[in-house]
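User: Let's play a game. I give you a shape written as tokens, and you guess the letters that built it. Ready? Here's round one.
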């Protein structure tokens, strides 16, 4: 029986490439463009880490994905909160227009105006707090 590789003393290159860490071989290719300086930086860092450039880039990107800084998640959460606040302020504006129309038509101010005004102030204060926190976290 013939063996592929280095005289039967271990798996050869073809056998090693068949599996990658117990999973299927990487079959996808990702091409990126880098400057000369970036290219040299990547090669030096890979050499210092004792890895091929491909392995170094994959390890670095995977680490970045798995160790995302709280900043990234916090920015996403703040964005969602600001979008929600924007919807709430819009809804309050619609309600205030309806209440003003009622006040003008019947010459009376509905009881819900004070509650709605307080709610509006709460939403605006929360939005302002999120904006301040967002400003602190941005570079």
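Assistant: Ready! My guess for every position:
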């Amino acid at each position: 029986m013939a063996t592929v590789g280095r005289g039967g003393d271990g798996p050869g290159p073809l056998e090693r490439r068949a599996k990658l860490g117990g999973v299927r071989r990487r079959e996808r290719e990702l091409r990126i463009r880098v400057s000369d300086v970036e290219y040299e930086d990547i090669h030096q860092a890979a050499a210092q880490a004792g890895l091929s450039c491909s392995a170094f880039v994959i390890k670095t990107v995977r680490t970045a994905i798995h160790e995302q800084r709280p900043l990234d998640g916090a920015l996403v959460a703040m964005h969602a909160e600001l979008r929600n606040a924007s919807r709430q302020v819009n809804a309050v504006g619609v309600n205030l227009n309806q209440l003003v129309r009622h006040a003008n038509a019947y010459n009376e101010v509905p009881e819900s105006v004070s509650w709605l005004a307080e709610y509006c102030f709460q939403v605006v204060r929360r939005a302002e707090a999120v904006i301040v926190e967002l400003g602190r976290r941005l570079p």
